[in-house]
Specification:
2 copies of one chain form a homodimer. The first copy, chain A, contains 12 helices and 12 strands. By secondary structure, chain A is an alpha/beta fold. Chain A has 2 domains: 171 residues, NAD(P)-binding Rossmann-like Domain (Rossmann fold); 120 residues, Orthogonal Bundle (N-(1-d-carboxylethyl)-l-norvaline Dehydrogenase, domain 2). Chain A has an 8-stranded mixed beta sheet with strand order 5-2-1-6-7-8-11-12. In chain A, strands 4-3-10-9 form a 4-stranded mixed beta sheet, covered by helices on one side. Chain A is globular. The N and C termini of chain A lie far apart (43 Å). The mean pLDDT of chain A is 95. Chains A and B meet through helix 8 and helix 12 of A and helix 8 and helix 12 of B.
């Protein structure tokens, strides 16, 4: 089975490194330079003190034809629009597409895609891209996947052949799966990014913990959550288990990169507006993060 | 006329330097060391490139007897409780007391004071303490004063004798005077302290400006403000006129000092609670600042 991976950021490189142990992988990069680097050097995967090199074909994204049996789309949500236009202009209809974006803002885009089977995934690995061909697998986790449209036969065949080191777990309900992750991201990401603190500080500092709980209540109200206490306990566990981690949004802000704030809080604010509910805390945090992005000249 | 000044921070030193040109001033310090320094060196006032030395008597606060005709209390709001206990344990009842604290949290404390005349003031000068006896007058402004209790005769005599360089302006309504300043402080101070930006950024960055306007609306609702547009325009002008200034709360956070958050947002949150109004944005900002204070070990 041939597998295509679109996007060679930390998640794209991580998936390419593991999947190429079993399948023939082509990774599609934004720039021709990065494709050339990967073709020359392979993808170097660092996991603890262990280093492995995977030989992977790389091509610039302009060369993607959609012919692989499965294509994994590992770009950020804010880069997705241009990929979708590309999909809908392919000369063939692609068979199986797996989308790994954070948040839920991309769901409405997926309904416009012409493809046989569409899956969504939620990645629980920690990965840090060191340079254009080297990635550090610094948080071992799993990938949850679910069918968004069509059937999941091929994805099931694919995932059973992957090693236990890189597990893929099937979930029944794509909406619930993405919502679970969204709730966690919506609480942890903006607060850690604004406060510039590690995840653990949100539960160890009693004042920040108050903010966390109030924010969670506002999110619960917007999402009409039933099992509120379970969700809150999950957030608290994740803060404790990743106490010394810096969230992806904090790292984006520190590195002057755009954040995924629209995919996360933007989605919740739209949902609030459609229900005519007020969301003053989410709105404040949304604009604070948008302001931080603009402050550093990203929007110029 | 003898004048006492309690507190030798930036505002205490600034007032002592100007008032001692006309009146006999004793400044009361928290530590005996600072009193000794001031007695040895005088107070050095830097204003632009001009430097003047004022000879001022200094004593530790334990030596204060309340015998001066006017005593100006220039400590932070969170230090006020112990001063008030001191006032109420003096062997004589003091004649005239002028309180210069920010916010409005101190008003309820003032009703418990045994003194003939009580005034409150709102300082619009910028002053930066360089060391225990040197202060930089880096923002020339005025001091607004108003009668809180009793009559203002002596304060009027006092203020007419001060030079035009250091004007005191009488206001009719102490509540309105303090409220005006509170509104400005409640918007500018917490936002600049959390975002770690200069005042101008709050109006120049369109996303931060959204947060500013939403926050102002919540404050207006709590204070039942009538002339909302005027207040908002005042805040915008101040942000523009002090665009490159770092607010006092930002400086406190940066210097690991306690902030005046209780006097400012704490007061507004109490007011909201008494009216059974929700104040989600103020509450979030309040806990974020309290958390910042705790984070740096100030509460330990």
């Amino acid at each position: 089975m041939k597998v295509g991976i679109i996007g060679a950021g930390s998640i794209g490189l991580l998936f390419a490194a593991y999947i190429s142990r079993v399948f023939e992988v082509t990774i599609y990069t934004r720039t021709a330079e990065q494709a050339a680097e990967i073709n020359r050097r392979g993808i170097i995967l660092q996991k603890g003190s262990e280093q492995t090199i995977s030989i992977v074909s790389a091509l610039p994204i302009t060369e993607w034809k959609g012919t692989e049996a499965l294509t994994i789309i590992a770009v950020k949500q804010y880069q997705l629009q241009s990929i979708i236009e590309k999909i809908n202009h392919l000369s063939i209809m692609p068979e199986n597409l797996l989308f790994l974006q954070n948040g839920m803002g991309h769901l409405k885009l997926l309904t416009n895609i012409q493809a046989k089977n569409i899956f969504v995934g939620s990645v629980e690995h920690g990965a840090l891209k060191d340079n254009s061909y080297r990635v550090n697998h610094n948080g071992v986790g799993k990938t949850n996947v679910a069918v968004f449209n069509g059937d999941g036969l091929l994805l099931q065949q694919f995932s059973t052949r992957l090693s236990e080191e890189f597990p893929i777990e099937f979930q029944e309900d794509y909406y619930e799966m993405l919502e679970n992750k969204l709730i966690v991201n919506a609480v942890i990401n903006p607060l850690t990014a604004i406060l510039q603190v590690e995840n653990g500080e949100l539960v160890n500092n009693p004042f920040y913990f108050n903010v966390l709980k109030n924010l969670f209540r506002e999110i619960s109200f917007i999402l009409n959550l039933e099992k509120q206490e379970e969700h809150l306990q999950q957030i608290i566990s994740i803060c404790k288990n990743t106490a010394e981690n810096r969230s992806s949004m904090l790292k984006d802000i520190e590195a002057n990169r755009p954040t995924e704030i629209d995919a996360i809080l933007g989605f919740l604010l739209e949902k609030a507006a459609r229900q005519e509910k007020r969301a003053p805390q989410l709105e404040t945090l949304y604009y604070l993060i948008k302001g931080k992005e603009a402050e550093r000249g990203r929007l110029s």
